[in-house]
Predict the structure of Acyl-CoA dehydrogenase.
Amino acid sequence: MTETVTAPETTESVAEFAARARAWLAENMPRIDPDNPPFSVRADQQSWDRAKELQQRLYAGGFAGICFPREYGGLGLDFAYQKAFNDECRCYEMPLILNTPSFTICAATILDVGSEQQKRDRISAAIRGDEILVQLLSEPSGGSDLAGVITRADRKDDKWIINGAKTWSTSAFAGDYGLMLARTDWTVPKHQGLTMFLVPLNAPGITMRRIKEVNGNEEFCEEFFDGLELGDDAVVGDVNDGWTVASRQLHHERRAVGGGSEFASGTGAENANEMPPDHVRLAELTGQGDDARVQDLAGRALVRRLVKKQLIDHVGAAIANGSLPPNAGTLIRLFHAETTELEVDTALAIAGTAGVVDEGGELAGMLDIGVRYLSRQTGSLGGGSSEMARNVIGERVLGFPREFAADRGVPFNEVKRGRS
Ligand SMILES: Cc1cc2nc3c(=O)[nH]c(=O)nc-3n(C[C@H](O)[C@H](O)[C@H](O)COP(=O)(O)OP(=O)(O)OC[C@H]3O[C@@H](n4cnc5c(N)ncnc54)[C@H](O)[C@@H]3O)c2cc1C
């Protein structure tokens, strides 16, 4: 473990910073072809070990945590510096899998609402490349109704005793700490009885299992808590004010998923599924390069990608200048999910049977499209489903009336659940 060193205050312009980064990257980071990068496999521990190693290099070189405050190990610079760094590091291997959820969601939330000690300990350790942070929110009983969690934290003497289960925790097997939402008061309406905890994932009382997905990946985990003991120092924010913390987390998640977080370093595709399918090449390989219908399909997908890029800049700037509320980050997240689905659907439509049957030769490579199709909807679920995103846009951005909820204002222990 390295010691956290407070970076000196920067007096450099963005251009000077970028020039210094350019020289440092060339000397210190492995060069890659940005159009053909070495992808990380989130399900493999070695990808995480590699990411930590790269992060440690960035930290040693003074280019880690660009937008995090200096007192917590960052550089205390604004987004313009991070964007300039992102431009410079395109051709170098970066620890991209540390961005989300570790930096863009968990560390960002701790920065907003964590205790001074949590900021000094956890944010610094993540920036140094020593620790990974994950999210433990969704439960087997459902994830959309996050305020309805039933994992419980009961007070016993000076400890909190946690019992319950969480699921769909991205990369938790590689994590060190998780932000975990639990119910601490069952006698008040659902949003008022929650508390967020920062849980050390190797603590006794936690059983973690990997989940096998339909595409064969094992990136997600489920955790079972049986009498896990936590102290008051694990509480993030205030007791029974966990909804405030969870709301910050969701806010950061929406921005991160849409690609608009200043806490993400590097912008390349993290894995092969994030690379836009090459529709033109697919059309040529399948002998449809001159087909007007196929050209139309490919053109639509390309235009959507270009609009997405513009939307990220536009919404980001509008939130920053106050002309759109912070919840408008949901627009980016929704458009991102829909763009991904359109791109993969278009690829499969062009590939046809070669996307699902091995047709040999160059067409054999198209089987990836079929596998990718199986997970094309992850963007419409992770970070809240697209239906929930539309609810947020309707209610929080456009100001429509809130949808009916039978449990609004009702003490949680009186809310009907399941077959009760
Ligand atoms: C890639 C990915 C990464 C994830 N990472 C994590 C993680 O790290 N940590 C974590 O805790 N969870 C994670 N999740 C879980 C994710 O947060 C949940 O899948 C999501 O919140 C939806 O919950 P659910 O799957 O339980 O669906 P449910 O809540 O059971 O919903 C089922 C369906 O009903 C719809 N629905 C529900 N309520 C409403 C409503 N009020 N209005 C309209 N439609 C509604 C939903 O949109 C959905 O289509 C991840 C999921 C994915 C796909």
